[in-house]
Amino acid sequence: MGRWAAEDVLMTKLVGLGSKKGSSWLGRVGDVAKQPPTWAGAAGVLALSGPRGRQAALRGSAGYVAAAALHMPIKLLVNRRRPPLAWAHSKFGPLTSSFPSGHCAGELAFSLGAAQEIPLVFIPLYAATLLSEWSLVRSRSHYPSDVFGGAAVAIVVSLAAWKLWPPSRTRDADPPPPEASGH
């Protein structure tokens, strides 16, 4: 058993047996929330809400893309097998290895990025992220540690973005530099 095996077994037992897609209303919401068009729609809604919303949509989308780019080399390096029931819910099965969860990485990076501009959007965006990740573990598409790994990728991306591209709300709050006087 690997380092995370005991925790994965415990967490998997806590969420119960594997379920079919959409077997409950939470499952149906999670199945929708884990789709990239859902996050593109969230970006569209934010962008239509005004200048701060456009900045939040841009920052969230950039985080989503950066997390997607960062998690793929990790997947190739780790090359972890999917849970045994991962193939049961898809005609073709998952195409990539299990660790880290790209869904979690992208969705949480979007949520954290958008919230850097508009902090209150974190609540609904994180709720959608949480339902999505619960759906992935419940349906046995991912191990719980895959989700934690994806979250770590998202946090790294978000912290790097905060440092390299400070949110406009913090830039706007900074006082202007003193003007040079001619005296």
Distance between the termini: 74 Å
Tell me the β content. Answer: under 5%
Number of strands: 0
Q: What is the CA-atom radius of gyration, in angstroms?
A: 19 Å
Helix content: 55-70%
| H and E string | HHHHHHHH
Number of helices: 8
Give the integer mean of the pLDDT values: 79
| Computed structural class | mainly alpha
Q: How is the biggest beta sheet arranged?
A: none
Uncertain parts: none
Judging from the principal axes of the Cα atoms, what is the shape? globular
Write a concise synopsis of the structure shown.
This protein is mainly alpha-helical and 183 residues long.
Task: Describe this structure as you would to a colleague.
By secondary structure, the chain is an all-alpha fold. The protein is built from eight helices and no strands. Helix 5 packs antiparallel against helix 6 (122-138). The longest helix has 28 residues, at 51-78. The termini are far apart.
